[in-house]
Amino acid sequence: MTAETQTPAVKKPEPAGDDSFMNVFLRNLWSANNVLLTALSVVLAVVIGAVLIVVSDAEVLAKFGYFTARPSDALSSSWELISTAYSELLMGAFGDPAVFQAWFAGTATWQQAFTPLSETLTYAAPLVFTGLSVALAFRGGLFNIGAQGQAVLGCIVAGVAGFSFGLPIVLNLAVALVAGVIGGALWGFIPGLLKARTGAHEVITTIMLNYTSALFLSWLVIQKGVQAEGRSDAISKTVAESAQLPSPGGVLRVHLGIILAVLVTAGVAWLLKRSAFGFEIRAVGANPHAARTAGISVARTYVLLMAVAGGLAGLGGATQVLGTAHALTPAVAGNIGFDGLLVALLGRNRPWSTFFAALLFGALRAGGNRIQSFAGISLELVTVLQALIVIFIAAPALVKAIFRLRAARSTGLGASLAKG
Amino acid sequence: MSTATVEDLTEVAAPEPFWSRPRKLGTALILLGVVAAGVFGSLAPGEDARFTLSENAEGAALSIHGPFGAVLFGVLTVIAGGVMVAGLLKRRSNLLLVLGILTFVLSFLCWQVAGHFMPLVDTTEGTLQLALPLILGALAGVLGERSGVVNVAIEGQFLMGAFAGALVGTMATSVWAGLISAAVGGVLIAGILAVLSIRYLVDQTVVGMVLNLFALGITGFLYERLMQPDAQTYNQPPQLPEWRIPGLADIPVVGPVLFEANLLVWLALGLVLAIHFGLTRTRWGLRTRAVGEHPTAADTVGIRVRGLRYLNVLLGGVVAGIGGAYFTLVATGSFTKNMTAGAGFIALAALIFGRFTPFGAFGAALFFGFAQKLAFFLSAIESPLPSQFLNMLPYLATLVAVAGLVGRVRGPAASGQPYIKS
Amino acid sequence: MAERRLALQRPPGSITELREIPLKLELRGITKRFGDLVANDHIDITVEPGEVHALLGENGAGKSTLMNQLYGLLQPDEGQIVVNGEPLVFKSPRDAISAGIGMVHQHFMLVPVFTVAENIALGAEETRGGPLGWLDRRRSRRDVIDTSKKYGLPVDPDALIEDLPVGAQQRVEIVKALTREVDLLILDEPTAVLTPQETEELLTVMRSLTDMGKSIVFITHKLKEVKAIADRITVVRRGKIVGTASPDTSEDELAALMVGRAVSLEVQKGPAEPGDPILKIDGLVVDDDRGVRAVDGVDLEARAGEVLGIAGVQGNGQTELVEAVMGLRAARAGAVRLDGADLVGLSTKKILGSGVGYVPEDRSHDGVVKEFSVAENLILDMYDRAPFGNPIRIDGSKVGSNATERIEQFDIRCQSPATPVGTLSGGNQQKVVVAREMSRPLRLFIASQPTRGVDVGSIEFIHNRIIHERDQGTAVLVVSSELDEVVGLADRIAVMYRGRILAIVSPDTPREEIGLLMAGITGATAEGEK
């Protein structure tokens, strides 16, 4: 197996001829930081996405049919397709220059100009919470695939609290948010307890709980007292206005959730770095045996950690219901839990990095909507991009291998040109 | 050599824990039985529950008075539990457990079917059909898991297989091309899983989950780009034919289920046997298990650990890809977005519930298939019992199993750990 | 590559037909580097047919690395392996086996859930053909029985490995190598887990193997065994050969060669002044992970100002005894009293908090968190108490100043308090653990294998610290499988065998007598035999 001869452990000294500028440059950059790796991963994902866009377009493919006769046709139409797609994506995420100009000219409102950013932040807010949930659990050595289920529980409990109690303003919102946290915490507590008591692997238990909660939600929304009156489809009553997260309104959907996300990120960062519980989490995550020997109760840490992680994911679900959806449907939580998994991986389980990873994912999602409606390219492109970015992030050696290969090739080309 | 050692000392007495595994399980069975006899028995309408031996209400049938049946089987459950608690038949405790669960299910059926009829052929056939992808997916899991690679990407392999099967099947207008492409689709995902986890040492569960999302994204993307606008060219695959073996197909119940079936049924059953005997009786199996249990030991006798892991994960990709073909080439006539809807995770559940063995996975897949079929049946007879709860059964059963309530499930020792040469 | 493929096509063992003279091995200039570390530096060794060649060296001297290259698990960066005059390249163990070289690893390479026959067959299976290779189990069994009879090594082919005691597992490993018809057998620290009795048996087996013309490379750091069995001795230190010796060389000379300077294994200490009993263990019963009785009714007493040593071959319940005292393992029966208060059922945190210091036997597994900094490791069990913090938050500045102080006091060699502990040497990691556990007022100090895998300089330092702790009036419990260490440190020695304390003796007791006790032979019966 050739793979065995190329393990990272068996590093051969680089041949002397490899000291080209490109290689030295790359080597220095590698040692520099992870930001570059992230950037290169994004580039790779975007390139693969571009290929997908082209190969799935019948018209452009037809032009490749006579590529040898008139290559410019195929290439220019491919380029046009790709550049449209990605520029729509950027405009959907950050803003359309044309609309900004219109705003300055007075023909559009500032709200319209900031709609894309508002969308980005709207999609990012729940992902911050689910991302932090997964990241925090990871730091304690647990792989919380259950963020999805915990978010669903958060949705359910926050939603039901949101339309049931009719408490005064502020209080109603606070109660609904706390309810969401409790719902998620409960759904995280179960796998934590099972892990601590019986050693059941959290990956398995949380996967099972994800589907259990999804089925429960789809049953719940069609029950009397929950289902919206006069509706036959699966949708619940609307959350009381006093329990909704405040938002500027109009075309701007962004809501208080993103501010909450900043605060919670700061809280999680403090927890990990300065608190005794954070010390326990990190110790248990790095070496549970040594932690136990030092008197840290690993079982208690697992249970608490999963409850806290569940609570975070539950808060993500609550944000979704109270901030954006305002009513329960079987798909109300969307994919926020699984996306949170990707967000945490992208953020390398560090709180603030996770926050920015969530912003990136929110931007992709907002841009994806625009691609879908303006360029007619499936929104699923975004899912592909997100998964690809994380795959590359998770395998730094792979990215290095790809770029080293390209660097070597380009030097080869340069050398042959010099000789010629 | 001196023989005056102290080996023959007897142990100091210490109290044995009272709650042994059979006691716990037996108590659980007794409780279930009481619920069955009491609740099911009293709720059952006072009519006969008919189980017909055909696909409809016609023909011969077994029938039993509903409440009587519910109570009878509930009492049997209690007896099975009682025997376990009393510590009798210790060697047969697994058999007792199965009996207890079976009688509990029968009691439940007597309650639900009372006043209706349940066609056994249709139920069996539906169970097997619903279990088909689960069997294949779980077998894929067995292949990876036993060689030390956790495969949580079964769902992704299903989706890729289903998609590739539909796409190529339609474009080539050949169901066989579709089937082969489905296998290739599964291998594609398995290949990424293998390379990333075996060569690049990325956490296997992480890769698996990301690959699920990747498969969901890419099939969804291509579906919306290609299949949705032009279904005729891309999304109308031919279906796998049903073959009938004359003679054998006339056996009641079993005949129409097993001998008037499509290729996948025979393939799945064949693979269960092949993988079981392959693992236990062949050099490949011995080495696979060694690599999954103690890779360093395997390495020191000259077995190529990573090579074998690659092989098994890719073989698993073939099997899971074919399992994906079930969705587009057997169950429905076209691909739709996220059409597997978590079946890959039920397959994973079956793998764990079946304790990582082919027969166990097969049994668990049938059990879960039955639960799904039952959910359909109950909503058809408009039972007040919500189908969502029956559909939760595979997940809850697995939860109970991994929590060690039904005996600890322990996977291969090196499962999930990348092999790094020191 | 082509050469290797040829070697692979030959079934292992068949090469023996080609080889008529017994195997003579030469290692020429073998060099292996891991990053900056030179694990083997131009090693030259010749092993003649039929001899026991001992490779003597401390832990970490590079013996195992060398043998792993000889066995094809690692490839040398420089140098040659020459078998019977022919230079060979071993890309995997398969190549080494087909060249006639077998190895018994320190940690047995046996699959616990397989039978003996399956383990022995693995990698060289007897099959009845077919694409997958249908196993011929009967032939595999017969092969095991044949080899076992031929060499006088009794093994049961149908037993599961996990049910066998270590001595039997080792026999399986040897049979496994012998069924592959190897002519040179590498034994890596084979006696580490054996009782003196089992060691005796192993030496007999080794002798009979060499009589049949096989040669043996015997890796060890135990001087007595080397003197008893070896024909030639090569001493390795820090990756280099520092000398060769004959079995007539005195132990002192060998020890000096091995560690590089004349060392006194004696610990400098004054007489103990025992005070009141602090730790009292009564009728303690503990099970191991598999539910097998590990501690079988132990009574012990440790007094203030004395060191109580527990001697015994590893795996006789010492680990479980200490873990039970520390609340890391449930006691099935009995009591553990610290100053009269029962510790059984208390959490480890409470036990540590009541004035117990604990150095676990497996440092990297249980003692330190390698990813954590030195400073964090120094408060690993005190992070939530004054002065370092409270149950809510940790005071970073206190943690830092504590680290600076301890690093100075315990001579911990590290770049800074923020350095991850994993980058430190074994000795310095152990000093971090010891420093941590001694940095609060103690009533009882428990150290398991306190100097395992630690360099000589650190050993002396740690021993002195332990005696210093004793002289402060702390009760000290030292568990070690190194008899020398126990004898050197302890004021009283309890010998543990199969979960029981066979006797409590004074450190002046003759070594042989303690050795017999470790083998489960009590003084009275042993004398009766004479």
Fill in the keyword field for this structure:
heterotrimer, A: 420 residues, mainly alpha, disordered N terminus, disordered C terminus, C: 530 residues, alpha/beta, Rossmann fold, 3 domains, six-stranded mixed sheet, 20 helices, 20 strands, globular, transmembrane (chain B), transmembrane helix (chain B)
Q: Do you know the CATH architecture of the largest domain in chain B?
A: Orthogonal Bundle
Overall shape of chain C: it is: globular
Largest sheet of chain B: 3 strands, mixed
Q: What's the average pLDDT of chain B?
A: 87
The number of helical elements of chain B comes to 16
Strand order of the largest sheet of chain B: 2-1-3
Name the biggest interface. Answer: A-B, 55 and 55 residues
What's the CATH topology label of the largest domain in chain C?
A: Rossmann fold
Fold and architecture overview:
The complex is a heterotrimer of chains A (420), B (422) and C (530). Chain A is mainly alpha-helical. Chain A has helices at residues 2-5, 21-32, 34-55, 58-65, 71-94, 97-105, 110-139, 147-164, 171-198, 202-220, 257-274, 276-286, 288-293, 298-325, 336-346, 351-375, 380-394, 396-419. Chain A has a domain at 121-359. In chain A, 51% of the residues are buried. Mean pLDDT of chain A is 86; it is low at 1-17 and 411-420. Chain B has 16 helices and 5 strands. Chain B has helices spanning 21-43, 66-85, 93-113, 120-146, 154-172, 175-199, 204-227, 231-234, 254-258, 263-281, 283-293, 295-300, 305-331, 343-353, 358-380, 387-402, and strands at residues 48-52, 61-65, 117-119, 242-244, 260-262. In chain B, the strands form 2 sheets. A 3-stranded mixed β-sheet of chain B has the order 2-1-3. In chain B, strands 4-5 form a two-stranded antiparallel sheet. By secondary structure, chain C is an alpha/beta fold. Chain C has 20 helices and 20 strands. Chain C has helices at residues 2-9, 15-18, 63-70, 93-98, 116-121, 137-150, 166-179, 196-211, 223-229, 251-259, 318-325, 348-353, 363-367, 374-377, 396-409, 426-437, 456-471, 483-489, 511-518, 523-529, and strands at 25-34, 37-47, 52-56, 78-83, 86-88, 101-104, 184-188, 215-220, 232-237, 240-245, 277-287, 293-303, 307-311, 331-338, 341-342, 356-359, 444-448, 475-480, 492-497, 500-505. A 6-stranded mixed β-sheet of chain C has the order 6-7-8-3-9-10, sandwiched between helices. In chain C, strands 16-17-18-13-19-20 form a 6-stranded mixed β-sheet, with helices on both faces. A 4-stranded antiparallel β-sheet of chain C has the order 2-1-4-5, with helices on one face. The longest helix of chain C is centred in the middle third of the chain and has 16 residues, at 196-211. Chain C is globular. Residues 1-20 and 525-530 of chain C have low confidence and may be disordered. Classes of the chains: A mainly alpha (420), B mainly alpha (422), C alpha/beta (530). At the A-B interface, helix 9, helix 10, helix 15 and helix 17 of A face helix 6, helix 7, helix 13, helix 14 and helix 16 of B.
